[in-house]
Automatic annotation (TrEMBL), chains A, B, C:
<comment type="similarity">
    <text>Belongs to the ammonium transporter (TC 2.A.49) family. Rh subfamily.</text>
</comment>
<feature type="transmembrane region" description="Helical">
    <location>
        <begin position="166"/>
        <end position="185"/>
    </location>
</feature>
<keyword id="KW-0813">Transport</keyword>
<keyword id="KW-0472">Membrane</keyword>
<keyword id="KW-0924">Ammonia transport</keyword>
<keyword id="KW-0325">Glycoprotein</keyword>
<comment type="subunit">
    <text>Homotrimer.</text>
</comment>
<feature type="transmembrane region" description="Helical">
    <location>
        <begin position="21"/>
        <end position="42"/>
    </location>
</feature>
<feature type="transmembrane region" description="Helical">
    <location>
        <begin position="197"/>
        <end position="215"/>
    </location>
</feature>
<feature type="transmembrane region" description="Helical">
    <location>
        <begin position="297"/>
        <end position="315"/>
    </location>
</feature>
<dbReference type="InterPro" id="IPR029020">
    <property type="entry name" value="Ammonium/urea_transptr"/>
</dbReference>
<keyword id="KW-0812">Transmembrane</keyword>
<dbReference type="InterPro" id="IPR002229">
    <property type="entry name" value="RhesusRHD"/>
</dbReference>
<feature type="transmembrane region" description="Helical">
    <location>
        <begin position="75"/>
        <end position="94"/>
    </location>
</feature>
<feature type="transmembrane region" description="Helical">
    <location>
        <begin position="227"/>
        <end position="246"/>
    </location>
</feature>
<feature type="transmembrane region" description="Helical">
    <location>
        <begin position="266"/>
        <end position="285"/>
    </location>
</feature>
<feature type="transmembrane region" description="Helical">
    <location>
        <begin position="321"/>
        <end position="339"/>
    </location>
</feature>
Length: 465, 465, 465
């Protein structure tokens, strides 16, 4: 037999979804690694360390309210809800994959936030004198943000991979994210508080590329499970609404104290509201009798939040936010109607949750909106100090002009895209190895592969189908 | 044929629920109108504008924590959850109308908050020198409040109207609300932080009057869908609980900084707790075998929050709050048992969610409680400065006595009632025009009229019924 | 007939679950008692009283942000969500007991918080000059905490008791809690901000002991209802996730302002993340084919939060938090696999929700972790002022050494245990009286005993079983 055949045999042997050894081994090994690395590297920062009373005296801080905790904790909790309930429940729409949607989301996010604290810490929170990563509430928010990128990618492969593959995808995804984020935010000094580029465009293209590499020509064998039932659509609306409601917190969580956070909230609130109306309009237009499609309502209503991720803290003005939301609701819904079928048919990219339309494309739009609004910023709109605060143009950057900043913003989009696509291709290749316990084509979208499900439930399902 | 017959033919022609043109046209037109009006009128206020660092210097503000954002943002997010998850899921109790409940709630609230920012802005946040509306976090809260009035009205007509009708109802509802609110809060200088009168009484009577005008004598033709199934009742409890838990934020969100917000939370917390016990008691008493009714638990437990909307920030004292909750739990539950059937049979008011018992009646009670507690306020209980802060009796109002204030509070109730009933009658008349795509009598309470629902779901439903 | 027989007849007469008189009488009487006691005893504290502007001047407070409300309100709302949605929905996993889970949880928590404000107030917030209890936001948090203990106990007896019994259990539970808490926190001056001992160990053993006393040898007669269906497991995940996400708020809600709250959040966040990975690992290992069990994911992922309740605000360091979470995920999951069946078979303790594994055992571990970390605290890690703030070693306690503190912490565990077991035995005895309307062995875990459920629902259930 030729090498090719042998290779083919290796990759095409019957699927074994027994993960009784693989999953525990990965969980234990990685968690122990986390403990060791945290032991070596991670300490409390000055605001969460018990020496804070001394820090207050040294820095002439008179009130505990100045502890960053009180500026950011409410936003952090909202972001936390988005990561675990928002993303988790949004993906419960499949009729028989709700356990996996919410359970695997829980698993990979819990691992990802630990690894993100380390990776982002090495790049951004290292105390040069001690070599320790010092963490506070802002690091927790950033770790949640980082994980959001991986959860977006999860959406593209939902139902078609094993939890072990998801953990591998998260390990590499967080690593890539931290490097990409460092390049974009620190080296290029690009502003991206809500992560249109860093989170959504990266996560979107990372997931889509992985899905392309893992393409299954015979996925139609589990077509009967690839859809929703009435109750699962209602569950998914829990995810949609918590994402929608708390998106203003997402885009403002690490914005500048004071007017920066305040403005980011107003802009995101307005942008999302406009998205809802145009999503409904296009959804109704797309059906012969004007009926609405739950897929659109669950997803495209959120596109405005993604697309304002970069510019949320800028002076886009309230009507500017509405315009962005208006366009993104339209484009995202049309993405579900036209682009997703095109990607599947022509590019062999099967995108279970339609992350192209909710994250990848609106993320790119968000990057462009950010570049344009940054390039046109001026002292009249922002005030002298406001311009410096908003764009962080201090120190050696104080001579960077808004139009130069706009150029750097545009460069940031390219970096995010490149990391998503190249990273996704490599990680996709790793995930094709036939050792990860992924399901056979006829068992996709089925909780029974990885979860104990009672037999009455299974019979009931077969009845209603 | 006579004019009467022609008119009759016009109003009674077979229902056409195809909204493929109507709904998109309304959504697009209105959203474009919002963009234009926001472009002309709406700007950031001084606390969300990038000139905030200069404002801080000018006003000698030394800490960003003084930005109103940090006082109000946590409450705002809670209110936001009440509007979108609270109201949305509370109405999912119908067995086959959950998509519409949560989806139309989402749609009309997203439109309503934009229109409310404009309407309330013209009346309350206009910068006289520039003619611009300046918005900050308090405007966002007020817009959510305003929309709450329309969502209450939605509860009365749930299942019987089209989304286009709901949008029209919201357009007029927000308009009426803004005028009514201006008269009550500004002209009469009535205090109503949690909106017993302004939100609940107005919204309740607005909805009930519309429902009266739209009365369907043959609604019993869709009786098989007018009720809950097991799972839909559990979904509705999500709405109930998020409303119940966050009601302290609702009643305190725009209360006076410091003790005002603090006290409003304590009072609402206690009042709601008492409501739960008396609701359970009456619900159990109302059944032969003492079984509890989910309708009561889902709704009447919330009556205490409504009834303390006006007086939450007053010195009603903790036991006073308990007494209000005690009575409202009883009255609201008895409303479901006795008053709702009476209204339907004798006044032809069909009230799907029982908003009379949860909003209209408790709202009136709340107005009365507010008037009495305001009238009996005194310097001993409040302190000199406390009395001024709580009732805002500064400037030309500084000579208004508590008993006069009580009188104005009572006048506020009448204004809210008048706007609800007269406004509802007019809007109801508009909604009777046979152009809005409302469902036929035998298709009420059915998601399939306006939503894509899979055929297996439909078959399954028919089986279990 | 002998006395024994007569006694036996009394206790074994056929069950009467008609609670039409009992439940309303208890609800009304107790609520009226609350109103009277609140009228006599409860007033606003200085930060929620309208005299606050004067208090500010007297105490030289220059900003309203110093009002404790702004330090604690966001955490309070998170805790409130945990109590009502978290505990409520976590218990909806049973296939036919979701109404009771979420409804009775609502009822007893609403009563419990009122009674807790009184009991905890008498022990801790009494103004000696007036004899009044002065309440503010911290009292509301503590009342929610107190009720958590009773809701934990509810988990052990879920499905086997009547709402009247639950109210009795809560009345005594809150009373015992307040005394135990006073002894541990005030007399012994033990630190337990997140309540590992005070809440979880006490509540866990209180519930387990009651369940032992109420042991039903013929509970297998309702075995067909003791389990989950697909949808009920998804509902339960709503509870799990809201508990998991907001646990950092639980453990930090009453921690020291500034670094104390900040650190408690970081520690809890990390500990919970580690719990998830080891829970998944052990759950997968426990099944032949490596499939995951929803019971483990719903519960054991939370064990880390319980186990860090005492030490959350200490300088356990980030890796220390991970280690605690690592171990608790393992132990708790193994508890579900090995200990729960053992307890039922050998000790006749039937524990519906497995509170032994989620609360009782992790609570003990938390107490031990707290004792060890307190005993090893030192000025190097905490700083001089930090040590004083964290352990509250001021006044006559200023000479207490960390190792002595560790000893007191250990003593606290014993007090919590003793109150749980002895209190549970007494209350269990009271609940055995055949007057409370509890269900017959064949009607356990069935909502139809206490709730109006439509007949189509019932038929549907019988079909799918």
């Amino acid at each position: 037999r030729t090498d090719y055949q042998r290779c083919n045999d290796y990759f095409c042997r019957p699927k074994n979804t027994n993960i009784r050894i693989k999953l525990p081994v990965v969980c234990f090994t990685w968690q122990i690694a986390m403990i060791i690395l945290f032991g070596v590297f991670v300490r409390y920062d000055s605001e969460s360390d018990a020496h804070w009373p001394e820090t207050m005296i040294q820095n002439n801080i008179t009130s505990n309210t100045e502890n960053d905790f009180y500026y950011r904790y409410p936003s952090f909790q909202d972001v936390h809800v988005m990561i675990f309930v928002g993303f988790g429940f949004l993906m419960t729409f499949l009729k028989r994959y709700s356990f996996s949607a919410v359970g695997f989301n829980f698993l990979i996010a819990s691992f990802g936030i630990q690894w993100a604290l380390l990776m982002q810490g090495w790049f951004g929170s290292l105390d040069p004198s001690t070599g320790k990563i010092l963490i506070g509430v802002e690091n927790l928010i950033n770790a949640d943000f980082c994980v959001a990128g991986c959860l977006i990618a999860f959406g593209a492969v939902l139902g078609k991979v094993s939890p072990v593959q998801l953990l591998v995808m998260t390990l590499f995804g967080v690593t890539l994210f931290a490097v990409e984020e460092y390049i974009i935010l620190e080296l290029l000094h690009v502003k991206d508080a809500g992560g249109s580029m860093v989170i959504h465009a990266f996560g979107g293209y990372y997931g889509l590329t992985i899905s392309r590499v893992l393409y299954r020509p015979r996925i139609h064998q589990s077509k009967h499970l690839q859809g929703s039932v009435y109750q699962s659509d209602v569950f998914a609306m829990i995810g949609t609404l918590f994402l929608w409601m708390f998106w203003p917190s997402f885009n403002s969580a690490i914005a500048y104290h004071g007017d920066g956070q305040h403005r980011a909230v107003i802009n995101t609130y307005l942008c999302l509201a406009a998205s809802v109306l145009t999503t409904v309009a296009i959804s109704s237009l797309s059906q012969k009798t004007g009926k609405l499609d739950m897929v659109h309502i669950q997803n495209s209503t959120l596109a405005g939040g993604v697309a304002l991720g970069t510019a949320a803290e800028f002076m886009v003005s309230p009507y500017g936010a509405l315009i962005v939301g208006f366009l993104c609701g339209i484009l995202s819904t049309m993405g579900y109607i036209f682009i997703s079928p095109f990607l599947e048919k022509n590019l062999k990219i099967h995108d279970t949750c339609g992350i192209h339309n909710l994250h990848a494309m609106p993320g790119l739009i968000g990057g462009i909106v950010g570049a344009i609004t940054a390039a046109t910023a001026n002292e009249l709109d922002y005030g002298k100090q406001g311009l410096i605060n908003t764009f962080g143009l201090t120190g050696k950057l104080q001579s960077r002009s808004p139009s130069t900043q706009g150029g750097y913003q545009a460069a940031g989009i390219c970096v995010a895209l490149a990391f998503g696509i190249v990273g996704g291709a490599i990680v996709g290749g790793i995930l094709r190895l036939p050792i990860w316990g992924d399901p056979a084509d006829e068992n996709c979208y089925d909780d029974e592969v990885y979860w104990e499900v009672s037999t009455t439930d299974t019979q009931h399902l077969h009845y209603i189908l």
